Amino acid sequence: MPARSHKFLILSLCAGFFLLCLAFIPVLGIQNDEALFASVIYGPIAREFRLRAFGHDLPLMVMTYLGALKTWAYVLIYGIFPPSIWSLRLPPVVFGALTVGIFAAFLNKAGKCGAAALAGALLLMLDPSFLLMTVYDWGPVAFQHLFLVSGCYLLWKFANNPTPAHYLFWGFFCLGMGLWDKALLSWSLFGLGVATLTVFHRELRQLFTLRRAGIAVLGFVIGGAPLVLYNVRHGLKTFRGNAKIDWSEVAPKWVHAKSTLDGSALFGYLVREEWEKTSVQPPNGLPSASFALREAVGERRQSFGYWMFLACAVAIPLWWPRRRAVLFALIYLACAWTLMAATKDAGASAHHVVLLWPFPQFVIAMTLAGLTTRGRWGMIAAGVIVGILSTQNFLVLNQYYTQGTRFCGGTVWTDALEPLHQAIRNRAQNAPAVNLLGWGTEFSLTMLEKGKLPLRNASVHVGEENPSTDDRNAIQAILAEPGALYVAHVEDQELQPGLVKRFDNQAKSFGYRREEVQRIDDRCGRPMFELFRYVPLVTAAATPSPK
Questions:
Q1: Which one of 82, 131, 505, 538 has the largest count of C-beta atoms within 10 Å of its C-beta?
Q2: 533 phi and psi, to 5 degrees?
Q3: Could you tell me if 320 and 372 are in contact, meaning their C-beta atoms sit under 8 angstroms apart?
Q4: CA geometry: angle at 337 spanning 336 and 338, to 5°?
Q5: Cβ contacts of 422 within 8 Å, gap of 6 or more
C-alpha cells in the first residue's frame, strides 16, 4: 500500500474515533472524579501538594498518587473556554485520537506490516473500554495512554536509530510525564522493564553507555519533576502510602480483566440496565437510529476481545516471525497486570485494567500480520476476523449508547447534575452555605461554578452512627446558620446509604426538622437529588412547606 494511502487511512481512523466520541459526550452527566482536578484550580491547594513560587501556590499533586498535570492543562483550557461538559470531555477525546494514530505508527514500525497497523488501530478505536474511558475520563486514563504509547514509540525509534539521542530523551520524558500524571503508571513501567530485559537484553547491552543512561535519566526526571519533588519533600509518600501488596487478591481480579477486555465492565455503572422501569423514547436522529439497530440485532453486551486475545496469545506459529515483539507485549502484560492485581485496594476496576491498553490490541494485530503471510486465504481470513471483531465492538458501543439515551446514566453519571447546578445557582445567592450530604457532587459543582458556590462537605460529621462530641458541635453550628441550603441524593440513590437519615436524626436532637425545597429528576424522570433546609421546629410548625 502506498505510504500516502496508508497515512490517509490512519487519519481516517483517528477522525472516526473522534466522531464516535462526540456522540457519547452529551449522553451522561459529569462524574465527580472527572472534575477532581478542578478542585485544585478553583479551591485551596493542600500545603502538602503545592509549591510556593513567585508569590503563587503552584500545584504539584492532587492526591498522593495523582499528579496535577491535568490541572495545569485545564488551567489553559478553561482560560479560553468556560467549564462545561464539552470543554471537559473534548480534550481527552483529542488525546485518545492522537493515541490511536501513534499506536498505528508504532505497530507499523514494530510489525513491518501496514495492514496489521491498520487492523490494530481499527480494533483500538472501536474497543468499548478504551473509547468510553477516554470520553468519560474519570480514571483518569487519557494522558496515561498517550504518554505510554508515545514513550514506547519514541524508544523503539531510538533503538533502531540510536545516533540522534533526542528520541531517547523524549521517550523517557513521556514516561516521566505519565508517571507524574498518575503514579499507577509504575505498573506499566515495571512491565516494560522486565519485558525489555527479557527480550531485548542483547540490544540493551549494545546500546548502553553512561552518556545514554544519563540522557534517559535526565528525560525521565524532567518529565516527572513535580512527582520527584513531592516525594523528595515527603519521604517517598507516593509509594510508601500506596504500594501495599496482597497476593490473595490476584486470582479474583482476573474477572475484571476479562470484563474490560470484552467491553462489558461498565454496564450497570456507566449506564443503567435495560430492565429498569424508568426509560424514555429515544429522540429522532442518532438516538433513534441506535435504538433501531439494537432492536434489529438484539442485546450485545460483550465483544470477542477476551477470547480473541487468548487465541492470539497461544497462536505461536502465526506470530513466530514477529516473536520478539509479541513476547515483549505478552511479558509486559503479564508482569504489569500481576503487579496491578497484587496491589492492595487497586486493580479491581476497569479504569485500572485499561491502563494496559493498547498492548492487547498489539498482540492481536501482530498475530493477524502473521496470518496475512499465509497467502490469499490468509489475507481473506485476517480480513474476516477484523471485520467480525470490529462489528461486534461497534454493536457493544451501540448497546451502551442506546442504554444511555433510553435509560440514562448510572447514579454517579446522572444528567440531573446540570439542573441541580442551575437550581443551586438560583437559590444559593442569599444562602450562607450549600451543605453537601453524600459523595458525588462536590468537585463537579466546584468546576461548573469556578469555585464561587459556598460549598461545604457536611457528610464528614455523620460518617458514623454516633458522631463524636466535636462532630455534634460542628453539626449544631451548621444548623444554626439561617437560610443554609442542603443537597443530597434521594434515599434510593444514596451512595452512602443512611447518611442523610443520620444527619436528620442529629438535626432533630437539636430541635430542627427538614423542610423540602426542590426535587431534581434526571432526563428519564427518575428522582435523583433533593434540596432542603433545616428550620427550628417552632418555625416549621408555623410555616407550611413549599409544594
A1: 131
A2: -130, 160
A3: no
A4: 95
A5: none
Preceding omega of 140 cis (within 30 degrees of 0): yes
Per-residue pLDDT of 424-480, as tens digits, reads: 988 877 778 899 999 889 999 999 999 888 899 999 998 888 889 999 999 999 999
**407, amino acid identity:** F
Q: Is 149 helix (H, G, I), strand (E, B) or coil?
A: helix
DSSP designation for 171: H
| Greater model confidence, 542 or 387 | 387
Maximum Cα interatomic distance, the chain, rounded to a whole number of Å: 88
Say if residues 267 and 401 touch (Cβ distance below 8 Å): no
Burial (CB count <10 Å: 0-12, 13-18, 19+), residue 265: buried
SS3 99: helix
What DSSP designation does 67 have? B
What phi and psi, each to the nearest 5 degrees, are found at residue 50? Answer: -130, 165
Domain spans, the chain = 3-411, 414-542
* H or E element at residue 182: none
Contact 531, 520 (CB under 8 A): yes
The answer to whether the beta carbons of residues 226 and 180 sit under 8 Å apart is yes
What is the SS3 assignment for 377-428? HHHHHHHHHHHHHHHHHHHHHHHHHHHHHHHCECHHHCCCHHHHHHHHHHHC
Break the chain down into helix, strand, coil percent, rounded to 5.
65, 10, 25
Query: What does the H/E/C string look like for 305-367?
Result: HHHHHHHHHHCHHHHHHHHHHHHHHHHHHHHHHHHHHHECCCCCCHHHHHHHCCHHHHHHHHH
Q: What angle do CA 308, 311, 315 make, to 5 degrees?
A: 135
Find out whether 527 and 490 touch, Cβ atoms under 8 Å: yes
Q: Which of 141, 136, 147 is nearest to 175 (CA)?
A: 147
Please choose, from the candidates 486, 495, 519, the residue with its C-alpha nearest in 3D space to the C-alpha of residue 439: 495
- Alpha-carbon span 146 to 150, nearest angstrom: 6
Return mean pLDDT, the chain. 91
- pLDDT tens-digit profile of 206-232? 999 999 999 999 999 999 999 999 999
pTM above 0.70, yes or no: yes
How is residue 301 written as a grid cell? 453486551
For the chain, the residue count is 547
Q: DSSP characters for 428-447? A: -TT-S-EEEESSSSHHHHHH
- Residue 269 corresponds to which cell in the numbers above? 455503572
